[in-house]
């Protein structure tokens, strides 16, 4: 880590591993040209969505498909519905990666919940950037130009930001992705209307269709459902209570099996953390790990072990 060597097995799109050396990155000429073009288009003011649509139209292989076709050893087995369907998030991630400047960036995310395998992205101040560790694909000037353009494009609209009480609770019945909130403004009186659109379509992932539903319609359905259940309770409260009890008992019978599985997973994670702690100490003693990073990682592992012990 002190020398900026990679800790992750994933390789940024546009690079390959050097034969016989899993740490060193070398430029993948074909993919690198796509990366350069993405940055050039962004510097011209094109949005990530416009870039994704253009690459899709030109049938440029997406990163996962490119790796599977030309570098199977680097393929992570990620599933996709169309080898040419570029997602907006994919373009954004490429535009965010400092690796294309020839730098290695470590500590991009940290674990927040070991049980749910959740991680959160770290801030720029928390990341470790090692400059000039491999060949750059783009120049610093192009990078700066793109980031300035993106910053201007990312300013809030004069309408401001909006939130709806149903946000985060609706999911697409077809692809399972979360529905995204859409805001509409009346040209006549400026009144605001809300609707929800499939997140899979919004991000151009999973080839989902552009179906959506208005927030008013969802609230009408919810009200109708509550009224229907209320009528059932009023008609036969005993039968309704028995049905609820039956469902509760089914869930309760499932819990012991889930608890046993959870216990095994927790024990496995605890053992993994113990191994990581030993490795940290060995790297510190051998001089491979700076004291500051040792303390930071040690605290992270110790906190997680303490949480496991409480469980």
From TrEMBL:
The record, for InterPro entries, names: DNA_bind_recomb_sf, DNA_bind_recombinase_dom, SSR_resolvase, Zn_ribbon_recom_dom
Q: Which residues form the Recombinase domain?
A: 12-156
Q: What is the lineage of its organism?
A: Bacteria, Bacillati, Bacillota, Clostridia, Eubacteriales
Gene3D superfamilies given for it? Putative Large Serine Recombinase, Chain B, Domain 2
What are the alphabetically sorted keywords of the record? Coiled coil, DNA recombination, DNA-binding
Ranges in a coiled coil: 263-311
Entry keyword annotation includes Heme = no
Query: Pfam families per the record?
Result: Recombinase (PF07508), Zn_ribbon_recom (PF13408)
GO molecular-function term, one example from the UniProt record? DNA binding
Q: What is this protein called?
A: Recombinase
């Amino acid at each position: 880590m002190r020398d900026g060597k990679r800790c992750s097995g994933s390789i940024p799109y546009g690079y390959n591993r050097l034969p016989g050396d899993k740490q060193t990155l070398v430029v993948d000429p074909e993919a690198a040209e796509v990366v350069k073009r993405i940055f050039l288009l962004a510097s011209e003011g094109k949005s990530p969505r416009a870039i994704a649509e253009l690459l899709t139209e030109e049938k440029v292989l997406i990163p996962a498909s490119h790796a599977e076709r030309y570098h199977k050893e680097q393929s992570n087995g990620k599933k996709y519905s169309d080898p040419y369907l570029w997602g907006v998030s994919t373009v954004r991630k490429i535009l965010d990666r400092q690796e294309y400047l020839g730098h290695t960036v470590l500590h991009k995310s940290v674990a927040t919940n070991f049980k749910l395998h959740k991680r959160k992205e770290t801030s720029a101040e928390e990341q470790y950037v090692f400059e000039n560790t491999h060949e750059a694909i783009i120049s610093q000037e192009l990078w700066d130009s793109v980031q300035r353009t993106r910053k201007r494009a990312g300013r809030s609209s004069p309408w401001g930001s909006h939130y709806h009480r149903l946000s985060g609770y609706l999911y697409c019945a077809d692809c399972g992705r979360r529905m995204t909130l859409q805001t509409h403004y009346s040209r006549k009186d400026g009144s605001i209307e809300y609707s929800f659109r499939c997140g899979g379509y919004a991000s151009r992932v999973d080839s989902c269709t552009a179906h959506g539903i208005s927030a008013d319609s969802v609230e009408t359905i919810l009200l109708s459902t509550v009224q229907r259940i209320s009528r059932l309770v009023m008609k036969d409260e005993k039968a309704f209570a028995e049905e609820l009890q039956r469902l509760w008992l089914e869930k309760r019978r499932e819990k012991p099996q889930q608890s046993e599985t959870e216990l095994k997973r927790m024990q496995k994670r605890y053992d993994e953390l113990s191994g990581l702690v030993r490795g940290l100490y060995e790297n510190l003693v051998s001089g491979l790990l700076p004291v500051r990073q040792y303390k930071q990682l040690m605290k992270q592992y110790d906190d997680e072990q303490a949480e496991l012990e409480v469980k």
